[in-house]
Amino acid sequence: MKLLIDSANIEHIKQINHDYPVDGVTTNPTLIAKENRDFYQLIKEIRTVIGESKLLFVQTVSEATDAIVQEALEIWKALDKNVVIKIPVTVEGIKAIKELKKQGIKTLATTVYTPMNAFVAAKAGADYVAPYVNRIENLNGKGTEVVQEIKQIFTNASFTCEIISASFKNVQQIKEVCLSGSDVITVPPTLINQFLQVSSIKEDVERFKLDWQKSIQGKEG
Length: 221
Known about the structure:
It comes from Virgibacillus dokdonensis. By secondary structure, the chain is of the alpha/beta class.
């Protein structure tokens, strides 16, 4: 299972990429806008921080198919072709995914709320789909069940498309989708840092240290 950083903040990406075994970064227009920087400079810097071998996801903002495809090509070329293009699952977006598939450009179908959203995207040629777990929950749905159902549909249809579970409010939701068959999780830096925030770990380390020191002192005495 892959772990991605869901952020466009350079300092946060640097910290998580340095400390944790991550596989790449996902961005979106909202995260990019928060940084108040030139778009292409920012995404190129993210690429520099994480290196060429890790995944980088960048989203289009155009609405019509031709414009989405053109924007995707510009992003693809700007990042030396080593990028996955995020496209919302609108009708125009699905048509763009079909066209980009023909051109050999990898895509992620985003804004996925239902298993059938994911089915259509995978059928169109998307390499990844991103169900919005917490946003589904906010609409009185069950995000974990949506991930499970997408996984079952993909297995039944022999799709190679991978599920990138996104939109989390806590670590419990992340754990649940990990158990539900998600291929990838994309997580904000604040939640990734919580993965190891268990008070007992620090207490155990301190106890081991004290026991070791007592043992050494006893041998020296």
